[in-house]
Structure formats: structure tokens, C-alpha cells
Design a protein that fits this description.
- The chain has 203 residues and is mostly helical.
- The two termini are 31 Å apart.
Length: 203
Amino acid sequence: MNQHLEDIAEIRAMMERSTRFLSLSGLSGVFAGTFGLIASGLAYFRISRDYNGSYNRLLENQALLSDLVKIGVSTLVLTLVAAFVLTYKRVKKNKQTLWNTASKRLLANLMLPLVAGGLFCIILLQNAPHLIDSATLLFYGLALINASKYTYNDIRYLGIAEVVLGIISGFLNDYYIGLFFWAFGFGVLHILYGILLYRKYEN
């Protein structure tokens, strides 16, 4: 009886490995959160430099918006590089393949909402830049929820939290409060979930 149960468990594990990419590194979440907090700090000081009591003036400041976009893009690039390097190391350590059916499905389901969100943020940049922090949280959360079917289920809960933060932030027409939500979502939550994933699956 015990042998049959062990066989069933092994078959289930094999099926899960073939349909889910389970080599994501929790440390990449910690790095992403750290980069997010640094970016939030840089954005805060950049906004503070030009803020004169009028948010309408800030919306018209093209130099400010350009600098904020540069900060956001740089953070995204650093996060992606760190995630790739750490995940690649874990894949090699586990003697697995980085580019397989599960990872392709994970990437496809992750990128679809992210690309849509990125294009939508370009529209917001021209019409309602104060909503970009809300939109990035919202679409990122949807991307995590969409991709969670092909990796750890825990990612789904992070996605739900990001969506909730994005919706709340969208009701608040304030750069500083929106930036606080952005820092909490992309910074603090990433670090907490990164530590959780590391302790649960890697330690």
C-alpha cells in the first residue's frame, strides 16, 4: 500500500515538474524589492525637487516625467538581469533546463499583461501620468496571477496583493501617496515574498 502511495506521489511530482517551472529563485524577489525601494527613494527626491504645491505643474513637467521613466526602466532592467542570473544558477544547481515547455508558458502568460500594461502606461504618460504607479501595480499583479498557473502557487497571492494596492492607489490623486503604494508593492512585498519563497523551497 505504501509503495503504491509513493508511486502515485512520484508520478504527481513528475507531472507537476513538466507543467510548472519550479526553479524561480526567491532571492530574485529580494533583489527586485531592494531595487524597487531604491527607485522609490530616487523618485521621491526627484519629485520633491520640483514640487511647489501644485500637482498640475508636476504633470506639465516633461523633464520630471522623463527622469521618472528613466528610473522605472533602469529598475526593470536591473530586476530582470538579477532574476535571470539567480534563476539560471538555481536551474544549473538542480540540473534542470531553463528553456522548456513550462518556462515558455510561464513567460508567455507573464508577458501578455505586462506588455499591455506597458503600452497603457505610455498612453497615461501623455494624458494622466499620476495614474502610472496605479497602472503598473495593477497590470503587474494581473501578470503574476496569470503566470502563477505555471510556477509556485504562492505567486498568485503576491499578484492579488499588487492588484489591490493598484486599485486603492488609483483612487488617490497624489504623487507621494501613490509613490508610497508603489514602494510597498514593488519593494516591501517583493522582499517579504522573496524571503518566503527562499525559506519554503530553497532553504
